[in-house]
Amino acid sequence: MTPAISLHHIHKTFGSVQAVNDVSFSIEPGTLLVLLGASGCGKTTTLRLIAGLETPDSGEISINGVTVSSRERFVQPEDRRLGMVFQDYALFPHLTAAANIEFALNGAPVRERQARSQEMLALVGLESMGNRYPHQLSGGEQQRIALARALAASPGVVLLDEPFSNLDAALRKEMREEVRRILRQTGMTAVFVTHDQEEALSLGDQIAVMRGGKLQQIGAPQDVYLRPVNREVAAFLGEANFVQGIASGGQVECALGRLPLWVPRNGPVEVLVRPEQIKLEASTSQPANAPCIEHIRYFGHDQIVTLALPGGESLDCRTWARLDLKVGTPVKLDVHGPVIAYGK
Amino acid sequence: MAPLTWRGTWSVLSRPRSNRRYTALILPVVIAALVAVPLLLLLGELLTPSVEVWEQLWATTLPRMIGNTLFLLVAVGLGTSTIGVSLAWLVTAYDFPLRRIFDRALLLPLAVPSFVMGFVFMATFDYAGPVQTAWREWFGRGAPFPDIRSGPGAALVLTLVLYPYVYLLARAAFREQGATTFEAARMMGCSRREAFFRLVLPMARPSIVAGATLAMMEAMTDFATVRFFSFPTLSEGVVRVWEGRMDRAAATELASLLLFFALALILLERLGRRGARYDQQGGRGRRPLRVTLTGVYRWGAVLACGIVLGLAFVLPVGQLIAWTLAEIDGHIPGTWELVYGQYILTTVGLAAGAAIITVILSLVLAQGARMAQGRASRVVVKLATLGYAMPGAVVAAGVLLSLSAIDRILGLGLILTGSLVGLLYAYVVRFMAVSYNSVESSLVKVKPSMEQAARIMGAGPLKILRRVHAPLVTQGLAAGAILVFVDVMKELPATMLLRPFGMDTLGIWSYMLASEAFYQAAALPALTILAAGLIPVLILMRVGGER
To answer: Which of the two ends of chain B, N or C, has the fewest CB atoms closer than 10 A to its terminal CB?
Structure first.
């Protein structure tokens, strides 16, 4: 199957800044790929390179099997058959919602355009808002119109550049579900840029983690969360404990005991333990040689319990909001599943 | 969902383009050169002075002209600052009867051309005028009355029509300051007066300096008012030497000296606005509570606003209307309408032509600078809009220098120098900044992401221009065109020096009649210019009025 998007050794510098450094990946049609990273990691530049709004210094990009960017040729953005949702939506303020959508349907007969824009309005649940101007719409509604506009012409790929960054937290969650539903329904290939790891993990089929212009890891959400390729990716994706240990083959010996490894290793390592991987039990042993509760951050639906390990390290554990744990009490702990370790 | 069939083609339009940023600057650079070349040539004159001309000038009128110009600049600067700032603070921080009306109406004098104010004042307050006649009747023939035909008289007239620049900018600055700063100062023990002088005024300094400099630039370009008041300045000198003795060399030398003054003024403005970004954090939109004035202050405030507005607007408009009615009354029907119609046609044609050319050029300039961005494009824009600070006589002399150079090269006689081209060129140089500002600020509404969105949806450059830019910037273009149109109608010095033979505008006509003391005949064209000038002022009053 031809990949929907493929990037081949892409480089891009702005002045002295290496914005995108040797990035290669390809994704299957129908995939929702999330480009994830801290600001300045090159994720937006990568998106704009795919869009044709930037030209790469070297490397090749192809979309649905057609080379759009290479040393020999460069297809202009207007000829790439893409849809794009911008961070500020970029709705045209002088056009109604329906007219904004129709703008994308260049060249189709008027009747067809109107029918299509009604269809798109229905898809995003705003049938009755077609005659409103952007300034008469709420942030979430503007967002939906921008998405409808991007999808209207059945583009080969949709690109979304941090589309939720202007929305408040509650609306963001709602829109996340909505966008996922719409993209699934249309079966569209999409590339979504965000710096929010929770958003990335809950939205993407594939997640590409970028850092300093380089692609660190690409894979399914479970994969990048449980088996990050390095310490940095692990720390960026959710909460992480790193515990010192000595690995030998498929096992590692550390302050939490002897744990199985996903990937066999040898020698001194740092072991990644996610807070929710740890199960706590109140213990009757002496505080001197058992982990003790040092600090509790209570959130209601759950709590983070910080333990002082006998060796002097500290460890964050996530538990349900039980009341039997108190600061100062010794505990017994149990780690779920295999862990991953990084050489030092 | 059924996919829509795609109608576009996978055309490969071009190789990767990376130097588009620089090609975008080509046209702006041409425009900037168009504006800057006349001024640079004139600057060259200043650096290569011809000794005999200067010796002669220095021995005769030059010292007096320089002294007068300096006096006028200082007096107008101080006068407009004082009146403008006081009135702006009065209507912002206090409440008194008619305040809401004064708040806007105090902008009206902006519509009165300074030379019109000049001859109305002259007719009213001169020895033979109604005021002095009444004065003598009451206090006897020898009763002292300040000589209106003097430097202070000219400065007063110019201050009265130019204070709105300071008023407008200071009022905006005061409003933007919001309540928080003022309230914080009061909490720390400042009285209202102290808070004004220690906080409000220093924070508004950049705006006040900008307004006062604008007023001073206008005062520097004026030659007609000071001539009515027998107070020769450099601008007046350039015009006098040019038309009187047809001595182009001496006039050019004088103009180059005036250019030096203009540059000094720009520098002074830069210094005065240094460290100028006092951005307001929070507290926006909320104003400190207005203090309601009581007793003598209450009516004092009304009187202060009333006197300024009366002298600067009601008096000239009333007088012009009265004269016009008398003039029409005394005329044989059918004759003056023809003459008047002819002048209107010339003026409107000239103003419209200049407005269209200037707006198109500033659109090209703004779009190019926007695409290129960066330091280079800022310099280019600065150069291209330099003319606003240049007196009309300077621009005229510069344009003449460059066009006669081209004429010499072409060798076909004075085809450019003596034609409309020169005059339109001068208007473009002088008023580019005016239209650029409104065009540029409307172009900002088109965010780069909108252009990109349109491209991604398959729209080519032309479609983007037609469907996205045009609807969004039309208003700004119209505003720019109106401003240039009105400014051209009011313009005197450059028109005076460059107009082709026999081509007179309403302004020139009115000025000529007034300088021969035919005030009554001069009133109708003056009133026409004033009415046109009211259009942008009324728009400004609506926009800048209170929410």
So the answer is: C
- Spatial CA neighbour of A275 closest among A325, A237, A233, A326: A237
What is the per-residue pLDDT across A131-173, written as a single tens digit (0 to 9) for each?
A: 999 989 998 899 999 999 999 988 889 999 998 888 888 888 8
Residues of chain B with C-beta less than 8 angstroms from the C-beta of A116: 4
Q: Which residue of B has its CA nearest to A76?
A: B13
Q: Report how far residue A247's alpha carbon sits from residue B9's, in angstroms, rounded to the nearest whole number.
A: 58
Bridge partners (DSSP) of residue A339 are A261
Contact A153 B4 (CB under 8 A): yes
User: Using an 8 Å Cβ cutoff, are A281 and A336 in contact?
Assistant: no
Helix spans in A4-105 (H): 43-51, 97-103
Q: Which of B79, B162, B100 has the alpha carbon at shortest distance from B302?
A: B100
pLDDT given for residue B277 in this prediction: 52
> Measured between alpha carbons, how far is A143 from A124 in angstroms, rounded to an integer?
10
Residue B377: CB partners within 8 Å, gap ≥ 6? B25, B28, B368, B369, B370
Fold match flag (B23-40+331-515 vs B65-231+296-329):
yes
Domains and CATH numbers, chain A: 5-235 (3.40.50.300), 240-343 (2.40.50.140)
Does residue B107 contact residue B167 with C-beta atoms inside 8 Å? yes
Q: In terms of DSSP H, where are the helices of B273-413?
A: 295-309, 315-330, 335-372, 374-384, 392-410
What DSSP element (H or E) covers A274? none
Does domain B23-40+331-515 sit in CATH 1.10.3720.10? yes
For residue A79, the chain B residues in CB contact (below 8 A) are 8-13, 458
- A174–B contact, CB cutoff 8 A: no
Our measurement of the distance from residue A122's CA atom to the centroid of its chain's CA atoms, rounded to an integer in Å, reads: 28
Cβ B27 vs Cβ B365: under 8 Å: yes
How far is it, in rounded angstroms, from Cα A216 to Cα B535? Answer: 62
Distance of residue A156 Cα from the nearest chain B Cα, in angstroms: 10
At residue A24, the 3 state secondary structure works out as strand
Residue A139 vs residues A118, A175, B370: alpha-carbon distances, Å: 20, 11, 28
Q: What is the pLDDT of residues A164-210, one digit of tens each?
A: 888 888 888 888 888 888 888 888 999 999 999 999 999 999 999 99
Q: Residue A157 forms beta bridges with which residues?
A: A82, A189
Sheet holding A302-308, edge to edge: A292-298, A302-308, A314-320
Q: How far apart are CA B436 and CA B538, in angstroms?
A: 21
Cα torsion B465, B466, B469, B470 to 10°: value is 130
CB B515 within 8 A of CB B462: no
This model of the complex carries an ipTM of: 0.78
pLDDT digits over B243-293, tens only? 776 667 788 888 888 888 898 888 888 887 775 555 444 444 566 678 888
What sign has the CA pseudo-torsion A309, A313, A317, A323?
positive
What's the pLDDT at B438? 85
β partners of residue A23: A10
The CATH class, in words, for B65-231+296-329 is: mainly alpha
Q: Per DSSP, which regions of chain A are E strands?
A: 5-14, 17-27, 32-36, 58-63, 66-69, 82-85, 157-161, 189-194, 206-211, 214-219, 241-254, 257-273, 278-282, 292-298, 302-308, 314-320, 331-335, 340-343
The single residue listed with the structure tokens 């780690």 is: A335
